[in-house]
Amino acid sequence: MKKPVLVIMAAGMGSRYGGLKQIDPIDEQGHIIMDFSIFDAKRAGFEQVVFIIRKQDEADFREAVGKRMEEIMEVAYAYQDIKNIPEGYTLPDGRTKPWGTAHAVQSADDVIDGPFAVINADDYYGKDAFHQIYEYLSSHEDDEKYRYTMVGYKLENTVTENGHVARGVCTMNKAGELVKIVERTQIEKRVHGIAFTEDHGAEWTVLPGDTVVSMNMWGFTRSILGEIKAGFPKFLKKELSKNPKKCEYFLPAVVSSLVEEGRASVQMLTSRDKWYGVTYKEDKPVVVEAIRQLKKEGMYPEKLWGNETNE
């Protein structure tokens, strides 16, 4: 059985941060959130990382991240290209938005040859999550079904004080398997608790704080790549006419379809850790303080790789 590989979706970093060189460090040693994810992944057992980036960001990415990581892990690159769409389709006029997380993962088809975990580049997942997902991927293979997994988080541990967030709200069965995942694109803290809206705020539906949500930390066998590729033309046929400039091919949607068809099972692994991320610039001080506290508690050394210099 091949060793699991870590896949990091980083193709959106340039647009979100205004250029890779503007990625803000979150500690005095100059680490970014991705450093902590790779540190946690390495001590869980991962030895290879695949970065999914945009080709135009490659030089900046290698300088800001890649060169350092090449000394720590085996590194490979995959390139998400908005023009990479099925035969018979053309890029809609004015479309600049990437095609979504499923399309991003499909971009790594040529460099993934076994089980793999997928994460976002700019989310902090915690040590526990990487250990759980590595153990699962190291001990499960497809049989009569595809055997996937996902690390879920309590909703209350994933929201920000500074605006709304998008989360995949999960429903599980008694065996702890994912039954359904619904993408809610506008969730925020309200006066009466955490709630979501689907009509730009006209109506709100409260969600319990212990609701399990997806933070895009998935574990797959290589079989998912073929399913993503097969589903992309179907997605385009259905969604392109509705929203040509902004429709997205989401990873949870692909997985949900496979689960509903009885072709895949997704074992839910629930992390005890709190998620951190910089969705808004106002979130940064919270993340900086969280990392400082985790270092103080001994979760991380001051210098993750032993070769950083204090700024």
Keywords:
311 residues, alpha/beta, Spore Coat Polysaccharide Biosynthesis Protein SpsA, Chain A, 11-stranded mixed sheet, two-stranded antiparallel ribbon, 8 helices, 13 strands, 28% helix, globular
Walk me through the structure.
The structure is a single chain. The protein is an alpha/beta fold. The chain has a single domain, classed as Spore Coat Polysaccharide Biosynthesis Protein SpsA, Chain A (Alpha-Beta Complex). It has 8 helices and 13 strands. Strands 1, 2, 3, 4, 6, 7, 8, 9, 10, 11 and 12 form an 11-stranded mixed β-sheet that branches. The chain has a two-stranded antiparallel sheet with strand order 5-13. Helix 2 (33-44) crosses helix 5. The chain is globular, with a radius of gyration of 19 Å.
Strand content: 25-35%
Number of separate domains: 1
The number of helical segments is 8
Average pLDDT, rounded to a whole number, is 92
CATH fold category name: Spore Coat Polysaccharide Biosynthesis Protein SpsA, Chain A
List low-confidence stretches.
none
CATH superfamily: Spore Coat Polysaccharide Biosynthesis Protein SpsA, Chain A
* Rg value: 19 Å
- What is the highest CATH level, the class? Alpha Beta
**Helical residue percent?**
25-40%
Cα(first) to Cα(last) distance is 43 Å
What pattern of helices and strands is seen along the backbone?
EHHEHEHEEHEEEEEEHHEEH
**What is the tally of beta strands?**
13
Under the CATH scheme, which architecture would be assigned? Alpha-Beta Complex
What overall geometry do the principal axes of the alpha carbons give? globular
Assign the structural class, choosing from mainly alpha, mainly beta, alpha/beta, alpha+beta, or little secondary structure. Answer: alpha/beta
Which sheet architecture does the biggest sheet show?
11 strands, mixed
